[in-house]
Amino acid sequence: MKKPKKSIDYALRSQEMAKAGNKQPKRPKHVPLRTCIACHETKPKRELLRVVRTPDGHVMLDPTGKKSGRGAYLCARLSCWENALKKKRLEQEFEVTLSEEDRAGLDAFIATLPRDEPVQPPEKAQKVPSGRKKTTS
To answer: What's the rounded Cα separation, in Å, for the pair 37 and 93?
Structure first.
């Protein structure tokens, strides 16, 4: 005579294990990072502004971050934008020269940015003599 097979409900069993406290801790959410082309600081993608070269060759600001084309990121600081335009970083990144119309659009946006607060350099630490004498060989 054959023994009757035990039917195991695996879904029910896994639910019971979950209730028993075998929960794994939640992983922290992945935050995509991007680098500013002017100051080279790495920041979360949402803190930077995206500039895009569209497939037809125009360069414009991309507030949604979803326009198609080649993108580059800049901080929301006036100094980064001025630096990027002065050193032609956008033109280098996009491998295109900015037209007057594109430049005017970017300049209009730059005019809305607040002035940067001057950053004071950290105080220099004074050198403390080590008390050791130099030896000559």
So the answer is: 8
Residue 49 lies in a domain: yes
pLDDT band for position 119 (cuts 50, 70, 90): low
Supply 49's token pair: 């502004």
DSSP one-letter string for 4-43: PPPP--HHHHHHHHHHTT-PPPPPPPP--EEEBTTT--EE
46 within domain boundaries: yes
Total domains in the chain come to 1
Print the domain residue range for 63. Answer: 33-110
CATH code of 61's domain: 3.30.1230.10
- In the beta sheet, which residues pair with residue 74? 49
Q: What is the pTM of this model?
A: 0.66
Name the residue with tokens 């007057």. 100
Distance of alpha carbon 35 from alpha carbon 74, whole angstroms: 8
Find residue 61's DSSP bridge partners: 51
**Closest to 87 in 3D by CA, of 34, 48, 49, 36:** 36
Within the chain, strands assigned E span: 33-35, 42-44, 49-53, 59-62, 70-74
State both tokens at 48. 């930077």
